[in-house]
Design goal:
By secondary structure, the protein is α+β, with helices and mostly antiparallel strands. It folds into three domains: 141 residues, 3-Layer(aba) Sandwich (D-Maltodextrin-Binding Protein, domain 2); 107 residues, Dipeptide-binding Protein, domain 1; 210 residues, Dipeptide-binding Protein, Domain 3 (Dipeptide-binding Protein, domain 3). The chain contains 16 helices and 21 strands. A hairpin with a 3-residue loop joins β8 and β9. α15 runs antiparallel to α16. It is globular and about 65 Å long.
Length: 507
């Protein structure tokens, strides 16, 4: 299967490269970014894809940013302070900021954004801001976020989509079509989008930090074929590629015209299961955690890392990095044990369980699925691999039309969203409908504690619950792997995997 897919990629490689040469010639002042996936809706309230967050980094500044040292830094908010009871966070806003339509960014605008994120019926940010009970405008430069209970992850939440500020005037004018012509407060504004082909963003002259921006235009080109992305980087048709295949690292290192940048990442890859979402959840793997435990015993995470990721990733069975305080060291990555897998299946009274693994149409995700397929077969599993475009896969999972899926989560600096996103009862991305009162109670407890040591103890208990239930199997933490033109300077990788466009220059 891999051979056929690879051969097909080579067959189309030349034609695609010629097409890009004709359509993406490097105009002066244009930065060309090769990305793996075409984003979903370009509205911070609605978006759910990692590729969308990459585009948002050019388009929509946040209240708070994340540094390469995993600390929080001022962006649109220059300062923030907790109340003594941890039930209110007060933000001081930067002066002189305007949206890309010229409207002023002030406390009223920030409050309007936060209200939309936490209350609009179609907002995917509602669960992230559920503890927020009120947004108060103190003065034009001060906003107070009032909570119904202490919520430790709030600053981290404001360093992501819920902290991205859009023009309230444009939101009101465009309504549900805002994603088609978004207006934010970042350095570049979307001027053209052709689905599955490109997005063009032009520089906003009124950007508050314009001295840090050295390109007039950014063009994003989604290309699922990693070999094609590399070929176009080598040919000078792209300036930077993200989510580069680990197997391409050696080629980039050997090319004097290119530069390889790698960095540890907060993201992880996991095999998630449809446990309760519709009739397709009626299968042996979904019905019994012992069958999922058998599958885990049949796989070898270290082999997956070596084969697919050239050993660059970090094999893991938890959402937090093994070196982090929130990782439960009492639950190490298990070794492969086929005999144990067969014994667990016998205990569950299941022989040769059949199920389907859905994967994105990228060589990496497809290869991971096929390795799991082969390893599972040694223990008696009959696994079918189904490959699809990522946004089509998300739509299928939303309606419950899947049995398992190779999911990639880009990772956050706080442990709560790394768990919440796929597993919490009130998460819009809990596609498998995992249900555990103990898990949700522990998440609530962890959010209410601001002391890091006490919080770590709670998340260790969460790891125990997930180790017993196995609603998903974390496989490894994803490193950031980037290929750059040697002439591109100022790039600093951050563990969230996003590209910061401030400070980038072309020689």
């Amino acid at each position: 299967m891999l051979g056929r897919g690879f051969a097909h990629g080579l067959a189309t490689l030349g034609a695609c490269a010629i097409l890009m040469s004709a359509t993406a010639a490097g105009a002066a002042g244009t930065l060309r970014v090769g990305m793996q996936d075409d984003p979903d809706r370009l509205d911070p309230a609605l978006g759910g894809s990692f590729s969308g967050r990459i585009v948002f980094a050019a388009m929509c500044d946040k209240l708070v940013d994340l540094t390469d040292q995993l600390s929080f830094a001022p962006m649109l908010a220059t300062a923030w302070n907790w109340s003594a009871d941890n039930l209110a966070l007060t933000l001081t806003l930067r002066e002189g900021v305007t949206f890309q339509d010229g409207e002023k960014l002030d406390a009223q605008a920030v409050a309007a954004n936060l209200e939309r994120y936490r209350s609009a019926p179609d907002s995917n940010r509602r669960a992230e801001l559920r503890p927020v009970s009120a947004i108060e405008v103190v003065d034009p430069r001060t906003v107070r976020i009032v909570l119904s209970q202490p919520y430790a992850p709030l600053v981290a939440v404001l360093a992501d989509r819920a902290g991205m500020m859009a023009s309230p005037k444009a939101v009101q004018a465009l309504g549900k079509d805002f994603f088609a012509a978004p207006v934010c407060s970042g350095p570049f504004r979307l001027t053209e989008r052709v689905a599955q082909d490109h997005m063009t963003l032009d520089r906003y002259a009124g950007y508050w930090n314009s001295a840090a921006i050295h390109f007039d235009r950014v063009v994003f080109r989604p290309t699922a074929n990693t070999s094609l992305r590399l070929v176009n980087l080598q040919a000078g048709q792209l300036d930077i590629i993200e989510e580069m295949a680990a197997t391409d690292a050696a080629a980039v290192k050997a090319d004097p015209k290119l530069r390889l940048v790698t960095a540890p990442g907060l993201g992880y890859m996991a095999l998630t299961f449809n446990l309760h979402n519709g009739p397709r959840a009626d299968n042996p793997v979904a019905r019994d955690p012992r069958v999922r435990a058998a599958l885990e015993a049949a796989i070898d995470r270290n082999v997956i890392n070596q084969v697919v990721m050239e050993g660059i990733a970090t094999a893991n069975n938890q959402t937090e990095l093994p070196s982090g305080a929130f990782n439960n060291k009492a639950i190490p990555v298990p070794a492969r044990d086929v005999a144990k897998a067969r014994a667990l299946l016998a205990e569950a009274g299941v022989s040769n369980p059949e199920f389907e693994v859905m994967a994105a149409n990228t060589p990496r995700d497809q290869q991971v699925a096929e390795i799991i397929q082969a390893m599972g077969a040694d223990a008696g599993f009959k696994i079918k691999v189904v490959v699809g475009e990522i946004n089509s896969n998300i739509a299928a999972m939303t309606r419950g039309d899947y049995q398992s899926h190779i999911n990639v989560w880009s990772g956050r600096a706080d442990p709560d969203p790394n768990l919440f996103v796929y597993l919490a009862a009130d998460s819009t991305q809990n596609w498998g409908k995992y249900e555990s009162k103990k898990f949700n109670d522990l998440l609530a407890e962890g959010r209410a504690i601001t002391d890091p040591a006490r919080r770590a103890g709670v998340y260790h208990q969460v790891a125990d619950v997930l180790n017993a239930d196995k609603p998903f199997l974390v496989l490894f933490n994803l490193p950031g792997i980037y290929g750059l033109s040697a002439n591109l300077h100022g790039f600093k990788p951050v563990p969230d995997g996003l590209i910061r466009f401030q400070g980038l220059t072309m020689e």
